[in-house]
Amino acid sequence: MGETRPLCIDLFCGLGGWTEGFLAEGYDVIGFDIEQHVYGEHRYPAQLVIQDVCTLHGSQFRDADCIVASSPCQAYSYMAMPWQRAKQIARALRGVDVFPDDYVGARTIDELNALFLAPQRIQREASEAAGRWIPMVQENVKGTQPWVGPAQWHYGSYYLWGDVPALMPVVPKARKVTKAYAQHGSWKSVDGDDWRATENTGGHGKNPDGRKNGGDWFGKGADCSLQRRAGSKSSARKAASARIAKIPFPLAQHIARVYHPGTTERVA
């Protein structure tokens, strides 16, 4: 009889950035998402369940060793932009302005945070059913902090909440990307590393508002390079968004190692 492998639950799994790190550390992983993301050779690498995460009950994950999540960041990212419309929406959510006439989205802070808070509820329910604490780490963008509270740590533009380990990997410094990136959306830096794992510390790639991406993908700002090439619901835009939102492998693998059942020292 084979050895039982630890189990990770990946919520809002997308293309499986979290999952790839956990698979590399010997976990079984089950991912949950509201849709299947398949873009050419890019697809989720483990067992996938198509289901709205908000409809899940954590008791079904009583056997999990770790839960990870990366809920949608679009609303938070947009409101972090320096545009009048974005600022108006943020004020309206706080009750000090009215929403734009064409606005379609959350009308209360509770609605805005519903997806972000779902993994915390699921963790509590899973832990209660298991009779033990099941760690959960979730990721979002810098712009989420004004709405849910400060993150415990960040890996470049990937901000983390929950049971973040005391020791975390060093974030590589930002590198100048190739000319091909500016023209064609290449994902590589000059030395071939994945640019998404770098910290935006300066230069033209700096995103002080907490975006994971370049250009205005979520609103009506001046930089609409991707919008000019692809419509809001196009497969090209969805593919690019999914790839950019993918958790960097070093970060995912580190969390997987820390919460492997054989590890004794976990969180601060």
Report on this structure.
The chain has a domain at 8-171 and 248-258: Vaccinia Virus protein VP39 (Rossmann fold, 3-Layer(aba) Sandwich). The chain is globular. α1 (17-24) packs across α9 (249-258). It is of the alpha/beta class and 268 residues long. It has helices at 17-24, 74-79, 84-93, 109-130, 145-148, 179-184, 225-229, 235-245, 249-258; strands spanning 7-11, 28-33, 38-39, 42-43, 47-50, 66-69, 136-140, 153-155, 158-162. It has a seven-stranded mixed sheet with strand order 5-2-1-6-7-9-8, sandwiched between helices. It has a two-stranded antiparallel sheet with strand order 3-4.
Rounded to the nearest angstrom, the distance between the terminal CA atoms is 36 Å
Shape: globular
- What percentage of the residues does DSSP assign to strands (E)? 5-15%
Counting helices, strands and paired strands, the structural category is alpha/beta
Poorly predicted ranges (pLDDT <50, ≥5 residues)?
Answer: 176-231
The CATH topology of the domain at 8-171 and 248-258 is Rossmann fold
Number of helices: 9
Query: In the CATH hierarchy, what is the superfamily of the domain at 8-171 and 248-258?
Result: Vaccinia Virus protein VP39
Q: Quickly give the CATH architecture of the domain at 8-171 and 248-258.
A: 3-Layer(aba) Sandwich
Strand order of the largest sheet: 5-2-1-6-7-9-8
